[in-house]
Design brief:
By secondary structure, the chain is an all-beta fold. It is built from no helices and four strands.
């Protein structure tokens, strides 16, 4: 899925996940690409890969806010 956040505002955006497992013995990975300054000359991206192993536990993947943005 793709999500677009136009304005972070002054609060925090939390990206949470609850992994329910799979029926195979292969590990499950989730790739998250975060773009900053979309379609601007100083656009940059950050790619993170998460290995999902803990089943039925809610975990926080990302926390986005204006305080930790670097331009």
């Amino acid at each position: 899925e793709e999500f677009l956040i136009d304005d972070l505002g002054s609060g925090d955006w939390l990206v949470n996940l609850k992994y329910f497992g799979n029926k195979q013995f292969h590990p499950t990975f989730l790739k998250v690409t975060t773009y900053y300054n979309w379609q601007q000359p100083n656009q940059r991206e950050m790619v993170e890969v998460f290995k999902l192993t803990r089943q039925n536990i809610k975990m926080q993947l990302l926390k986005l806010n204006n305080r930790n943005l670097r331009y």
